[in-house]
Every structure is written in C-alpha cells, then in structure tokens.
Amino acid sequence: MANLALGQVKDTLLRPADTIKTTPIRAVRIDSSNKKADTIKQKYVNPGKVAGRKAIFRSLIIPGWGQLYNNQLLNEKLNAKGEKTGHFWQRTYTLGKVGLIYGGFTALTLSYIESRKNYNIFLKEAQFRARNPGQKENPDIARYDDTNVLNAQSIYKRNSQIVIFSYFAVYAVNVVDAYVAARLNYFNIDDTISFKISPTLINNPNMMYGFNGSPALKLSLRF
Questions:
Q1: 21 vs 14, 16, 17, 28, 223, CA distance in Å?
Q2: Is residue 91 part of a domain?
Q3: pTM beyond 0.70, yes or no
C-alpha cells in the first residue's frame, strides 16, 4: 500500500481552483460641465453692527456701561496701530460722557426732590385754606393769596413730571450715544477717501409726454 501510494502522481487533468477574485470596475465619467464649483463663502460679519449691539445692550442694563465699552474699543484700536500714547482728549471725551450721564441724573434727582418738597408745602397750605377760609397756616408763604398758592402747587407738580420725562430722555440719549460711538469706531476715515462729480440725468415724474429726464450732478464717494 505504501508503494502504491508513492506511485500515485497528481492528476493534471483537474482544473486548479481560481483563487483570484476579480470585481468589475465601474467606469466613472467626469463631466465638469454639469457640476458647479463649491461657491459657499464664509458669511461676512460687520464688526460695527456687532459692536453697536453690544453697546446698546450694556447701556440698557447700566447707563454709561456702553461708553466704557466704547473706550475699551478705542484703546484696542489705538494699541493695534501702535499708538499707546496720545489721543488723550479722545479718551477723555469718551470717559467724560459717563460723568455727564450721571451728572444729569444727579441734577434731575435734586430737582425732583426740590419740586416735590415745594409741591407738598403748597398742597398742604391749599388744603388748610380750603378747610379754614380766611386763615393761613405756613407763615413763610403767608404773602401768597389763595390763587397764587394753587398756581404754585400746579407749577411744582408739572416740574416733577417734567423731571420724570427727562430721566427717560437722558437714558435714551445714553443708549443712542453708545450705539453711534460704537459704530464710528469702525468707520473708515483714513486718507483713501475720494469723491467724483459727474453729470447725469434723473427722472422727472412731473412731465407727462416726451423726454422726462432732467440734468443733474452725480456725487460718488469711495472709501
């Protein structure tokens, strides 16, 4: 059996197993005429608008905070240009507006207190005279007749109301000033600004027939 086994040879008629696995290759057609290039660009962010919104938000929370924020923007702008010194008056003006805001609030507060004090004095005197005809309670205003007492009471009451409206006016001016100053920090005012004046025609709606254009001058600013 060993001799028979050794005497066997490999059958060459059998087909060898195919170990190479092939996959069909799909042809890819490149047609650049039907494909558009990716034109997605990064959205532009206006730094002036962003700074203006931040200034408004700060001024609405605390009056004067927007002006302090603008002073910070000014310092960053000057440091970016290498101007660490100078512009003293510009910084002083920016910070001085904070003092003006709170100085205005202080003056209005003192005026309101004084108006309410005098209003209560004349109101009390008017009420006393209404209950006691012909008599006067406060010797300091005894020289005023009944009509003058009532008029003074109305004047001081109106002054108190005006002061209250003035509070809102100062508050609104504080917000508007902070917004405008923040926008101006990013406004280009360098020497590259130029303008051009050229003749042009504008439409005249008053003319019904024929040529309705009127000669004019066109001003173009470039900065």
A1: 20, 14, 11, 22, 68
A2: yes
A3: no
